[in-house]
Description:
The structure holds two protein chains of two kinds. Chain A is of the alpha+beta class. Chain A contains three helices and seven strands, in the order αβββααββββ. Chain A has one domain (3-142): Chemotaxis protein chec (3-Layer(aba) Sandwich), CATH 3.40.1550. Helix content of chain A is 38%, strand content 31%. In chain A, α1 packs across α3 (84-107) and α2 (63-73) packs across α3 (84-107). The model of chain B has no long low-confidence stretch (mean pLDDT 95). Chain B starts with a strand and ends with a helix. In chain B, strands 2-1-3-4-5 form a five-stranded parallel beta sheet, sandwiched between helices. Chain B has five helices and five strands. Chain B is α/β, with parallel strands linked by helices. In chain B, 46% of the residues lie in helices and 22% in strands. Classes of the chains: A alpha+beta, B alpha/beta. At the A-B interface, α1, α3 and β4 of A face α1 and α4 of B.
Amino acid sequence: MQQEKFSELVMLTRKAFEEICMELVSCEFSPCERFILEYPYKTAVIIGMTGSVNGRIHLECDLETAAKIALTMNFGERFDNPNDVYAYMAEFANMIGGRATTYMSEKFLGGEIRLTPPAIFSGKSLGILTPNIPSQIVYYSGNLGRFFIDIGYK
Amino acid sequence: MLKVLVIDDSPFIFKAVKKALENSVFDVVDNAGNGKIGLEMYEKYAPDLITLDVTMPIMDGVETAKALVAKNPNVKIIMLSAMGDEALLSQAKEIGVSGFLRKPFKPEELLNKAKEILGV
Lengths: 154, 120
């Protein structure tokens, strides 16, 4: 993929992330310096894109941040089922992926782009790698916590 | 009360639809986690309105909308999707979907759209 198009796709994904955070949980996440998540339990959500753009968005944060995001999405109400935090994070990522594909479709004059259902991973000392796909990691910080997004397109 | 069925794999969307539509003329009766279950629940509840997600496992929203319209050409569906590209919008219109909202939606947007579609 041309570097220019790759940079454009990354920029549109970042724009989608920032907007959804603002609209959904009223939190302004700003790009920040590289960091290592300190909380031992992490949550990662991966959304794939197929069609005229092929790639994936990998969002990762510590479980504490995920719980804060999910609680805010849940109108501040506690969950009956603690596993709902993961389902809420999946929807959060789905909205980011959906907004990003909408922008990509507009930018690159149509072409059908579809999302795969989100895959959620959680655990201690979690590490996810996707070889053979050019990607860029962006680090974000906001009052609900810290995220990194690994954005890959081929 | 007008019955609303939610077909969406996200418990968050079910809750958001309930928050938006309840305390009005609507009763949100149930949530189906995919299109296949949604079709079964459609038979069970005979809802006045369906909110339908697009990206779901087993049977997605586009296939589900086609199946619902085949069962009842007058079925009222609001498609709720994180994606909002022109290709999807025109496909939804072609199938016979009554309305389309992008996620995340504001509660009043969904309420107004539901009222407009059902003429209440």
